[in-house]
Structures
1.
Amino acid sequence: MNQFHIIVIGGGGTGAAVLHDLTQRGFKATLLERGELTSGTTGRHHGLLHSGGRYAVKDQESAIECIQENLILRKIAPESMELNEGLFVAITEEDESYAEAFLAGCEACGISTHVLTPKQALDLEPNLNPHLRLAVQVPDGTIDAWRLPLHFFATAKHRGADIRTYSEVIGFLKNAGIVGGVRVLDHKTNQEYDLKADIVVNASGAWAEKVTAMAEAEVPVRPSPGVMVAVQGRYHNMVLNRLHASGDGDIIVPQRNLSIIGTTSWIVEDPDRPGLPEDHIQLMFKNGAEMVPAIKDAPFRAAWSAVRPLIGSKGADEGRELSRTFKCFDHKERDNVEGLVTICGGKATTLRGMAETTVNVVCQKLGLDIPCRTKDEVLLPYRAYYN
Ligand SMILES: Cc1cc2nc3c(=O)[nH]c(=O)nc-3n(C[C@H](O)[C@H](O)[C@H](O)COP(=O)(O)OP(=O)(O)OC[C@H]3O[C@@H](n4cnc5c(N)ncnc54)[C@H](O)[C@@H]3O)c2cc1C
C-alpha cells in the first residue's frame, strides 16, 4: 500500500468502481455516501448493458466506450448480468431507412450486428409487433443495477476500503486554494467531523455541481431526468430498442419477471426534485406497445424517475442532444483548486472505464506510475460485500 489517502464522494456505480481501482493500485481509500449505497441514479436505471448500438450513429465516442466496457464487464462481473442479447426493431418505413446508418455506425464503433428478417425476429421473440420490417441483433444485455456496483464495493472492501454510508460531505477543508479533505455530517449520529485526504474524488453524479460549488469550483453537469415504467410480466427475453434515433419510450429491458420501459429526457436545476410527469408514464405504455403490443394492457407495477449526470453547459444543447460520454475534470486546471478531481457523465455500463480514467489522473497528480489492472481481475461475488 502507498502512503496516500484518497476520499471518494458518492456511493453509486462510479464511486464503487473508483474505490475498487484505487485499492487495487494500493491507495488507502474512504468512500462517503450521503444515503444508502446506490441510492442515487445507479439504483434506478433500466439495467441495460449497452452494446453502444443506441449511440452508434450520433454519439460514437459513447458507443465505443459502451462496447469496450460491455465486453470487459462480461468477464469481470458475470454474476450480475443476463447475456440475453438485444434487438433493434424497425416498425415503420422510416425506421427501416435508418438501418443503413445504424449498421455503418455499429461497424465504425466495433459493435457486432446480425440483420434478421421479420420471421427470424418473431421466431426469437413471438410477442414483437407482427408488422415489424426487420431487426438487428447486437450484444446488449441485462444488468442488475444493484449487484454490479456491489461486486466493486465487495472487492474494494476486502482490500481494506473504508465505506461510510449516511455520511454527507457538507464542506471542504481548503487552505490556500488546496483541498486537503472534507467536512462530513454523519446522519446516523448527527455528528460532524473532518476527514483529511491527499486528493478528493467527486463521483457524486448529478449532484457534482452542488458538491464542487462547496470547494468554489465548477463542473458543467446538466441533471437530466428520465421516466421508467415497470410492468408485470416478461414479454420477451432479449433487450429491445426501436431502430431509430434515440427517442422516448423506445427501450424495453426484461428484468427478472418484469419489463422495464424507458425513457424520457429533460433538464432540471435540482437533481433532488426531478418530478414524475404523468404524461411521460402514459407515453411509455404507448410507445412500448408499438414494439410489443401486449405492453398496452400489461399490469402496471411501478413508475419512477432517475437523473442522468450529463456533461454540458447551461444554455448549450439540452436533453437528448447531450453526449452520453464521460469526462474527468482536474479542478487545478479548471478552477485553480488543487486536490479535487470530478468524474462525471457516462453510463452504468462504463463505470470501470470511468474509474480507470479518474485514477490515472489521481496517479499523475501524485507523480505515481501505477498501471490500471481492473480490466483483468474478476471481481468478488456481490455477496462478499456482506461477509
Ligand atoms: C432514466 C435513466 C435510465 C438509465 N438507464 C441506463 C441503462 O439502462 N444502462 C446504463 O448503462 N446506464 C443507464 N443510465 C445511466 C446510469 O444510470 C448513470 O450514468 C449512472 O448510474 C451514474 O452513476 P454515478 O455513480 O455516477 O451517479 P449516482 O448513482 O447518482 O451516484 C452519486 C451518489 O452521490 C451521492 N451524493 C450526492 N451528494 C453527496 C454528498 N454531498 N455527500 C456524499 N454523497 C453524495 C448520491 O447520494 C449518489 O448516491 C440511465 C440513467 C437514467 C437517468
2.
Amino acid sequence: MKLACQKHLFNLDPDLHYLNTAYKSPLLKSAEEAAIKSLTRSRNPQLILPTDFFTESKEVRNLFGELLHVSGQNIAIIPSTSYGFSTIFLNIKGKPKGNAITVGEEFPSGYFALKKWSEEHEQNLVIVKGNKDLIQQGSDWNERILAAINNDTSVVCMSAIHWATGLQYDLKAIGQKCKSVGAKFLIDGAQTIGALNVDVQACHIDALICATYKCLYGPYSMALMYVDDGFFGGEALEEAWMNREGAEEFSSLSDYNESYMPAARRYNVGQTSNFILTPILLQGLKQIKEWGIDNIQDYCKSLAIPFIAQMKNHGYQFEEEPYICYHLFSVKIKDGKSALLQERLQANNCKLSQRGDYLRISLSVFNNESDLAALSEALIESL
Ligand SMILES: Cc1ncc(COP(=O)(O)O)c(C=O)c1O
C-alpha cells in the first residue's frame, strides 16, 4: 500500500516545516483525544476499574511485540532508556578479562550504562568510531565493528541506527557475529523502531530498548523493552507489586505471592498502567500498525530520493544504501556554514536539529514535498 501524506491526523502548525521527529514526534489527534478522555475520567476514580490497571498495558506490550516480530510476553513497559539499560546490565555477566563494544558517539543513555558495567565487571570498553574522513562511512564502519567482535567480547551495545546521523548498521551481520562468539547484543531502538522494520530474532538481539516519544508517536516518560527468553528469570530493578502473580486480586495483595508474573513482566516499572500517558502510546502503536512499517519507510523514501538527488547536484553529500535509511538521514555541513544555514532555516520556518557536524533530517508520514522544498532552498541559499 502506498501511503498518502498523513498530516490531517496531526495538529501541526500549518506554516511550519517540522523535520524533527528524531527530536520528538508531534501528538496524533487521536492520542490527544484519548489522553484527555483518560484525564477527565480521573475526576471520578470509581470509573477506573481494577481490570483497567492491566488491560491497556497488555495491549501496548502485544502491539510493540508485533512491531518486532515477537510475542508481547517478551515486552516490558519502562519509563526511559536508561532504566532499561540498568535492568539489562544488572543481568549480564562479563567474560573473564572480556571486552564490551559500542560505537563512536553513541547516545549517552547506552554509553554510560555500558561504561559503568564495564568498570564494575573489569571489562575493556572498546569504542569503534566512524571514519569522518570518508564521505560514506557505512561500509567501513560496519566492517570494523564486525572485526572488533571476538571470542573475548561479552557485550555489544549500540543504537540500531546512529542517533545523530541516521547511519544504518548491519544488525543481522553484527548479531550473527555476537551469537557466534557468545556475546550479548543490546540495541537502543529509539530512532528506529516504528519507522524501520527490525526483526529482533533474525538479528539475534538479546535486548532492545525504545523510548516512545520519537518514531512510536508515544509520550515522553515511557519506553518499551524487548528481552529475549534468556532474561525471563532475571533480577528486576524494583519489586513492583503489580509484577507478582495474583496482582489482579486487589483484596488479597498482602497474601504476598512470591512468584513473578510470567516472562518479561517482572521488569515492568511500578505504576505500569500510567493512565494518562498509556492511551497516547496505544494510539501511536495502533496507528503505526494501520500505516505499516514498510509503508512508512517507503513514504519517507519517496520524499527523500528527489531531495537527495537535488542536493547532490549542489555538492552536498549523503550516506548510501544499504547504510542510509530514509526516515532519518543527515547532511554534513561544511565548516563555517552552520550559522548561515541556521539563519536560512529559520527564515524558511524549517525545524530540525544539528548534531555535531551534521544537519539531521528526520521525515515522517506528515511531511510533504513542500517541507523538503523549504529545506532545499535553505541549504542552497547557505552555500
Ligand atoms: C538513541 C536515543 N536513545 C535514547 C534517547 C532517550 O533516552 P532516555 O529514554 O534515557 O531519556 C534518545 C533521545 O534523543 C535517543 O536519541
